[in-house]
Amino acid sequence: MASSTVPELPELPEGLDLAALERLAVDTAHEAGRFIVDERPGGLGVAQTKSSATDVVTVMDQGCEKLLRALLGAARPDDAILGEEDGATDGTSGITWVVDPIDGTVNYLYEIPAYCVSVGAVVGDPTRPGHWRPVAGAVYNPVSGEMFHARLGAGAHLVDAAGQRRRLRAGEVDTLGQALVATGFGYRAEVRRAQAAVLAELIPHIRDIRRAGSAALDLCAVAAGRVDAYYERGLNPWDLAAGWLVATEAGALVSGLPGRPPAKELVVAAGAPLAAALGARLADLMTVAD
Ligand code: IPD
Question: Residue 102: is its pLDDT beyond 60?
Fold first, then answer.
């Protein structure tokens, strides 16, 4: 499988059953996904805001993370958990579950059917770029019924709403001019201004742009060849963990700025023939926009 640009990779804990981790990721993502659809209250509103007035949390993000923590904690009590809403809980096994209870919260709030539950099992410290990597994970869109999942070395798969399972392969487009590129924007005004400046320079040179509103689904879209590439600044480990593995196991490359691992400063995911050219172009554009 293609690998990411990561300087120091932690060893896998001895005797690790990757297939069991992948099954647990799939089962918990599925149960949590059903929860956010089935238990959604009428007139759902914003429970709190985070980095800006548009960076919202609903009671369902909070409830879903509690559910994920309960399910993972019951199955594997020695593992650590890092979640978007409740932060980090220590463990002793060498595995950390990095979870986003609803990735695409704004879509969820507006009932746009592009949100998901993202559950990744990682080794290393997910708060230190270059010092962690996902080893199993699942991304579940409970509206489309699509379950994307992967484990290290075993490929990435999509199970659709009808239960059909297929192996994923990232696209083979090799020129920027032919590339359909997904991206996302942060929640803070000054960050968005810089992101928009980069996009304004990039868009004349690519096929087109997509902004779906869920980083985890964007990474899975690269894996499925639904877009040729995805890039974003400002991602957190929970946006990235499971989708990173799904993308790389589908043959895509996931990296950061040229020669660097994926990090808050930049995540670029693309089919292998396109990755270097897009990474280099973004690095140039970001220097100008900053
Ligand atoms: C957000 C989504 C969005 C991306 C933002 C993320 P959230 O996650 O993934 O697509 O552009 O950077 O923060 O807030 O919906 O969990």
Answer: yes
pLDDT value at position 289? 61
pLDDT tier at 41, thresholds 50, 70, 90: confident
If phi > 0 it is left, if psi is from -120 to 50 it is alpha, else beta; for residue 110 that is alpha
Residues 6+ positions from 9 with CB-CB distance below 8 Å: 124, 133
User: Does ligand 1 lie within 6 Å of residue 65's CB atom?
Assistant: no
Cβ(251) to ligand 1 under 6 A?
A: no
Instruction: Indicate which residue's Cα is closest to atom 2 of ligand 1.
Output: 214
Confidence at residue 43, expressed as pLDDT on a 0 to 100 scale: 80
**pLDDT at position 48:** 80
- Ligand 1 close to Cβ of residue 61 (< 6 A): no
58 Cβ below 6 A of ligand 1: no
Is any atom of ligand 1 closer than 6 Å to the C-beta of 243? Answer: no
Q: How many CB atoms neighbour CB 111 within 10 A?
A: 10
CA of 186 to the centre of ligand 1 (A): 7
**Residue 55 confidence (pLDDT) above 80:** no
pTM of the prediction?
A: 0.95
DSSP secondary structure string for all residues of 17-67: -HHHHHHHHHHHHHHHHHHHHHTPPTT----EE-SSTTSEE-HHHHHHHHH
Residue 234 alpha carbon, nearest atom of ligand 1:
12
